[in-house]
Write a structure and sequence with these properties.
This protein has helices spanning 3-19, 35-54, 78-90, 103-116, 150-157, 174-190, 208-217, 228-240, 257-263, 290-301, 307-326, 331-339, and strands at residues 21-28, 58-60, 63-73, 96-98, 120-122, 138-140, 165-171, 193-200, 221-225, 247-250, 271-274, 283-284, 288-289, 343-345, 348-350, 363-368, 371-377, 380-381. The protein has 2 domains: 3-143 and 278-350, Response regulator (Rossmann fold, 3-Layer(aba) Sandwich), CATH 3.40.50; 147-275 and 362-394, Rossmann fold, CATH 3.40.50. The strands form 5 sheets. A 6-stranded mixed β-sheet has the order 2-3-1-4-5-6. It is α/β, with parallel strands linked by helices.
Length: 395
Amino acid sequence: MSRFAVFLAALTFTAAAYAQTITFGASVQLTGPVANTGRYYKDAYEFAIDKINAAGGVKVGSSQQKIALRLLDNQSDVNLSVRQYTQLLSQDKVNFLLGPFASNFVLADSSIAEKAEVPMVQGGGASDEIYARGYKYTFGTLPAASDYFGSTIDAMAKLNPAPKTVALLYADDSFDVSVAKGTRELLKKAGMQAVIDERYSTNASDFSVLLSRIKSQNADAVLVAGHETEVLNFVRQAKSLGVNPKLYSFTVGVPSADFRRALGKDANGACGMTAWLPSPSLADQWFGDAEKFATAYKAKYGYDPDYHAAAGVAAVEALVNAIEAAGSLDHGKVRDALAKSSFESLYGRIAFNEKGQISLPQIMIQIQNDKVVPIYAGKGFENKLEYPLKPWGQR
């Protein structure tokens, strides 16, 4: 063989090695009732993959490979989502899976991954039920639902005077039931009485009966585990009925600009929690830090990222780190590398426990003067909580 032929063969081999792609597949809510949150995952997956590809892609052994994303719209239908994850594996032949949004979707879809023994890393489901099944191929970048109100209740216990009576409301899906179960124990340990402990139907629009009970019981604080549309309805109806507890907090909505736009001045005073804020102290291999990521994300998509987006990016990074650590696309080897993960990301330290879930403290936040303000983290108060809340007309 001539030197030229050898040179051409070498070029062909090198080009082929770099032309190879690793395909990540996901079914996400791009339309339907929860598309507003589903977009965070679509945008986060695309943004992270584009950034990693621009830096050269993923090193797999001696080859450098780019990532392709196969993304399907489940239309906010869990049954369609299950069929689409089956399609991603059986027809599209994707290498690895990223998750959908919402715990009930993750519960169903992760069973497809487990049966096929294909790693799924998801940042959309936090229900304790996901991790109680002994699955080996499901990994999550949201902290446990049962501790979502942990920082809030710690902060409440340190107030003077501390709330004594609490109304706990929660939707009837897996995530919110897990939140309620954990919150009961947290309230009990804090010496607070749940004068109302009520489950309501997912997508409920009328909270008038529950609000009347809250008013009659004179509950000091109200904790609501639900979806953003439910929370918006709750706040609007609380104002119209003149229900004004000293404090109220929600599992969703509060960190997002959409929540503030929807309620205007009535959003002020609302408390919530987040596992992530775009701090420059959160270093990242790909984006530099969380603040730089947030700036670049908003410049591209036109809205601020919240913890959903950060958890989605962390899911992509976890898979990439595991592939490089394994030096292989073998599902079992990548799964084992995921189980041993320990790295810093723009979202925080990613290290999965034996069940496949990370542990991150929730930061209690409150909307003050139309802005999200961090109030309480694990080490104490960061800013002053507006407590008790002003009357509705003064916010």
